[in-house]
User: Fold 2-dehydropantoate 2-reductase from Zooshikella ganghwensis.
Amino acid sequence: MLMKIAVVGVGAIGGIYGGLLANVGHDVHFLLHSDFDHVQRNGLRIDSVLGDFQLPQVNAYQSAADMPQCDVVIVALKTTANMQLAPILDVLLKPETTLLLLQNGLGAEEFLAQHYPNNSLLSGLCFICCSKIGPGHILHLDQGAIRLGEYNPQQEAGITPKMRDIAELFANTGISIHFTPNLLQARWEKLVWNIPFNGLSVVLQQSTQGLLTDRHCRDLLVELMEEVIAAANHCGFTIQPSYAQVLLHATDKMADYQPSMLLDYQNKRPLELESIYWEPIRTAAERGFDMAKTRVIAQQLAFLDQKNSP
Amino acid sequence: MLMKIAVVGVGAIGGIYGGLLANVGHDVHFLLHSDFDHVQRNGLRIDSVLGDFQLPQVNAYQSAADMPQCDVVIVALKTTANMQLAPILDVLLKPETTLLLLQNGLGAEEFLAQHYPNNSLLSGLCFICCSKIGPGHILHLDQGAIRLGEYNPQQEAGITPKMRDIAELFANTGISIHFTPNLLQARWEKLVWNIPFNGLSVVLQQSTQGLLTDRHCRDLLVELMEEVIAAANHCGFTIQPSYAQVLLHATDKMADYQPSMLLDYQNKRPLELESIYWEPIRTAAERGFDMAKTRVIAQQLAFLDQKNSP
Assistant:
């Protein structure tokens, strides 16, 4: 089955996953912003642990109005750009289109489900070390798996046919797809890493190993992870307290890594504070749980983000 | 009455107060470290809002062993150097010597009272904007008052004769001395300012106005102040919750100012984390109060201090 796929946002995430899908023969249509001219002329270049490749000619668009309607629309914008989504999706979606959201944090699904209630909405949590190092040029350093779930605000979605369709789409790309029956729980589990590591990497201007090898900073990482776990459990999810140590030791073993928020900061891009900090903080507060330490980090990041905006 | 006065540590605080005392005719003996050669040759230079002056010849010493025993010993070292105090004070103290400690934070009095139980121990909390801008060269920008109390671990010391003696010492210097009957309460009150402003100035690399004028950072300042007030009240002191807003508005009106910890950091001096952060955190924890947000800041500072040490 040749699926028509739209990739909205061609940064690191849209570039690597869209590029891999195009490389195995899918009909992929890329909606670009700043890199449009370069990619239309030169295509995409992917330097990947899965094997380097180039796509000299890709279907590149500057406006959603020029794009065909697609079977799958992959949303790979930063969450900070989500206010731009509605006019794009209004054009790209057919009633039977599946939306695949590749974003971190909380809140985006609620917005999409409200606006496009008839479309299937799936989300992939990306466990990947990659960055865009030039126009149309993606560097994929490590990992790559996607935790995939279908959004269902009422109950656990379970493993659905649409999830199997998306997994099939990624066949032969080298990307592992892991199903999660409870997407929101998986999102909170990812926040257990994102909240401490992304935030402290920006505030203290350090990559992962720099944070992990200092005694006080390591304590702080653990305390923040424990707070996120406690918040998640307070919100009705189930994350074991020992998960903090699991993530800590896994990160010890990873290559030294600059979290995506540190890269955003260094490149003077807005930080994803709303989805990774404020929405979880609000969600927990509504259940009566104060994420006090997380709020300290969020307030510091808000200050730095404000000073950093070009 | 001509008193013999020793000043141990001639940074900003020892320099300005010792200089002012010498300038009104007291017999002041300065124990110096890095600036000894310069000060022995050139004396002290004080640029002060109270009037600029020079002291071309001062009694400068490199070793306590060369100094006379004194009626008053002013300890104006950074608390990070307090481990060097015992051998110095062993030499300088007579049984009737009054110790005057000009330091921030908690913990130093306990140590001194234990080692020198027979000497009167007074502490001055300095509300002053000043810094050492060169060898033997002090710049005093604003304020200058000292809140003075006598140390008494059992009960409120009240207003004591020794406190009046010290106030008399500062007569004609231009420095206001305000008596506090409860020194430890005054120390906690000063921590309400020091903990948020010193810490965030280092973590976020900002002077006071930069911190105050950002909405998120201002919220964080207030939350930290409220936490310190809650901790103090938990430890048996009485600080009104409204004190946070009082300090905030007072700082709004002050000239833009680099807190001393930021100056220490910029000059690669060790930060006073033990007295300003860890000792208060421990003291509150012993009473069952977790200074959670303060600990986040302390852990970040410990990380930065470690990376900053030369």
Remarks:
- The beta strands of chain A are 4-8, 27-31, 44-48, 53-55, 59-61, 70-75, 93-101, 120-134, 137-150, 177-179.
- Residues 4 and 70 of chain A are 5 Å apart (CA to CA).
